[in-house]
């Protein structure tokens, strides 16, 4: 934070009168603040109003009664899987393994774009400024998601099992499938990583240890080192996965990744549900970033042992996975999960704990903590304004407590990414959101009709 009298060049945007939750532990809350943006970065955060003369001709956003936060960082999602929303939650298992629902190999390019745009739109309207996505047709869905203004990171799922047979209980690893999916990921990295002023990026995304052979996982490790990119995968997400790896490798999934060299602080490991004490110690010792899918996992009757993982040294982050994109609600579920496991309310699990997971924790997992994740001078101007002029967010005593315990993603009023306003009055500005909703509905209906044949 700097003094309002500091001499500086022109300001492009002023957010005036906000209560700011910075996610910076040095000064986590600033009331009645003015955030000044120059270009794509935060130039100043002024305690109180800035001098009127400095704001002549500057676009101003009246943020009185609003709470400003950093953009939320969703480290693990599958935007296209909005297609099974409201159905797959009650089937008890991941869609890729479940008969009778649309699968990735069923989705056409046009349908993939329609559904991915819906997922990105939903996330954006709920205050996520970065999505780390993986599924099919990413060469088309990644730029389509970026058109909404969001930070679109992703990768096609890398695997060598034949996914058209997995839901039938058939597991056959084919070298040609692994070669194709890895080559597609390498091409995606060459085409999109670092594009759109850094709003686009690519991580390698092996689907899971059970859908990748050992040889393919070794290739992914070597490729990630060559490309200097991170890895995002599912890990110990199901008893099926654990059973198959124990049968195939005589070890647990975390043991396998550790032996191969993928279990490290450049790995985002989603779920980590079915882990024993040795697995937890191994994940923590290696500094793995665990993507806690708090709501999605409990919907299926499971949860990750987040208290034990934290104590072991793992870095906890948050993701929405499939069917749901409200990171505010995910924070609430993560807090409740931690307290249930701890068996009490103490300093280990407080609103600031899960807020950090959704902001700086996610930024660190993505390797972007110097650029995003907190509202600090010099960082990217990724700013979300929540409207606290709403009955469930009053009284205004502790805005962070209200955010985690009672707010919802739909309380987002304004979203700014790279200094550009992309959501205003709870509507997206860069795309036609009504068209996106209609296109996604048509795509999902067509997919479900084909799945029932």
From TrEMBL:
Keywords: Hydrolase
Keyword Hydrolase set for record: yes
InterPro entries per record: Amidohydro-rel, Metal-dep_hydrolase_composite, Metal_Hydrolase, MTA/SAH_deaminase
Gene3D superfamilies the record matches: Metal-dependent hydrolases, Urease, subunit C, domain 1
Superkingdom, taxonomy of origin: Bacteria
Keyword presence, Hydrolase: yes
Residues annotated as domain Amidohydrolase-related: 68-422
Record-linked PANTHER family: AMIDOHYDROLASE-RELATED DOMAIN-CONTAINING PROTEIN, AMINOHYDROLASE SSNA-RELATED
Family the UniProt entry places it in: Belongs to the metallo-dependent hydrolases superfamily. ATZ/TRZ family.
Protein's name according to its UniProt entry: Amidohydrolase family protein
């Amino acid at each position: 934070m700097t003094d309002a009298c500091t001499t500086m060049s022109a300001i492009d945007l002023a957010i005036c009168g906000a209560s700011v939750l910075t996610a910076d532990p040095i000064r986590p809350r600033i009331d009645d603040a003015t955030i000044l943006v120059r270009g794509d970065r935060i130039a100043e955060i002024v305690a109180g109003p800035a001098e009127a003369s400095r704001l002549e001709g500057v676009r101003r956003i009246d943020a009185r009664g609003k709470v400003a936060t950093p953009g939320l960082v969703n480290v693990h999602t599958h935007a296209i899987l909005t297609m099974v929303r409201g159905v797959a939650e009650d089937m008890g298992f991941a869609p890729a393994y479940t008969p009778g629902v649309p699968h990735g190999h069923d989705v056409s390019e046009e349908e993939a774009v329609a559904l991915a745009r819906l997922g990105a739109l939903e996330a954006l309207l709920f205050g996520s400024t970065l999505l780390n996505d993986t599924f099919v047709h990413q060469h088309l869905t990644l730029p389509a998601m970026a058109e909404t203004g969001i930070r679109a990171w992703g990768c096609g799922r890398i695997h060598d099992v034949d996914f058209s047979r997995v839901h039938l209980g058939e597991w056959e690893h084919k070298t040609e499938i692994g070669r194709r999916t890895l080559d597609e990921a390498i091409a995606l990295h060459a085409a999109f990583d670092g594009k759109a002023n850094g709003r686009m990026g690519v991580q390698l995304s092996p689907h899971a240890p059970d859908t990748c052979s050992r040889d393919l996982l070794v290739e992914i490790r070597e490729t990630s080192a060559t490309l200097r990119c991170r890895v995002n995968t599912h890990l110990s997400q199901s008893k099926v996965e654990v059973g198959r790896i124990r049968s195939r490798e005589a070890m647990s999934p975390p043991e396998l990744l550790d032996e191969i060299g993928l279990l490290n602080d450049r790995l985002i490991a989603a779920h980590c549900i079915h882990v024993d004490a040795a697995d937890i110690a191994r994940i923590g010792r290696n500094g793995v970033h665990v993507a806690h899918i708090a709501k999605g996992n409990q919907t299926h009757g499971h949860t990750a042992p987040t208290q034990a993982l934290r104590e072991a040294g793992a870095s906890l982050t948050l993701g929405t996975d499939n069917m749901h994109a409200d990171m505010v609600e995910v924070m609430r579920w993560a807090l409740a999960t931690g307290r249930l496991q701890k068996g009490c309310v103490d300093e280990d699990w407080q609103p600031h704990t899960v807020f950090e997971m959704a902001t700086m924790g996610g930024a660190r997992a993505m390797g972007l903590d110097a650029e995003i994740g907190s509202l600090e001078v010099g960082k990217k101007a990724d700013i979300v304004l929540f409207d606290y002029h709403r009955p469930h967010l009053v009284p205004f005593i502790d805005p962070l407590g209200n955010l985690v315990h009672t707010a919802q993603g739909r309380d987002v009023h304004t979203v700014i990414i790279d200094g550009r306003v992309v959501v205003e009055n709870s509507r997206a500005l860069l795309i036609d959101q009504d068209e996106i909703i209609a296109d996604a509905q048509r795509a999902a209906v067509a997919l479900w009709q084909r799945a029932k044949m």
